[in-house]
Q: What sequence folds into this?
């Protein structure tokens, strides 16, 4: 034994201290017991912040939330979150280059038109306004209001106009403007 300790340049007292630390059973913290109990009672739906508040409310324990987080993470008691579902809008069917190129001046009426959709909030209700503006005199030449934002909504606005050949219609190329139906 002393030969091995000499080879690694370790003192005998250090070796026996390491050996004694490895054999000590870790005492379980009383806070861990209370955290486990709260987690099990609530089917692991609460996060560490709520568990910290419950420790204070129920048991009168003031514990740092970072300690509660560390304990819950080590034991695998963190709440199980569901991933947020995001709508998949798909890929644009057709995207064109920017022909307007920030030239917002028009020489003739109905030469350059711009369009966009605006959200209108009325209490709990949300409406959509699709409008087309003529850049010659900044006049709104067509508009539609609807409660759903889809391709038919934009097409209703476009069908209000008789567009001649060579008219430039500029949009922000959002999902309704780049869909196959348009």
A:
């Amino acid at each position: 034994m002393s030969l091995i300790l000499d080879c690694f340049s370790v003192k005998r007292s250090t070796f026996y201290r390491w050996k004694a630390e490895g054999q000590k059973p870790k005492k379980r913290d009383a806070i861990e017991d209370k955290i486990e109990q709260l987690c099990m009672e609530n089917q692991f739906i609460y996060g560490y912040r709520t568990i910290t508040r419950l420790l204070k409310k129920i048991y009168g324990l003031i514990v740092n939330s970072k300690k509660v987080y560390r304990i819950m993470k080590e034991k695998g008691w963190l709440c199980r979150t569901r991933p947020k579902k995001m709508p998949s809008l798909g890929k644009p069917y057709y995207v064109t280059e920017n022909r307007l190129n920030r030239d917002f001046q028009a020489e003739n009426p109905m030469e350059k038109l711009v369009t966009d959709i605006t959200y209108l909030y009325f209490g709990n209700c949300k409406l959509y306004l699709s409008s087309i503006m003529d850049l010659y005199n900044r006049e709104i030449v067509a508009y539609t209001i609807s409660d759903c934002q889809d391709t038919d909504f934009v097409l209703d606005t476009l069908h209000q106009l008789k567009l001649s050949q060579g008219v430039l219609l500029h949009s922000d190329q959002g999902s309704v403007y780049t869909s196959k139906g348009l």
In short: The CA atoms of residues 120 and 127 lie 5 Å apart. DSSP finds six helices and four strands in the chain.
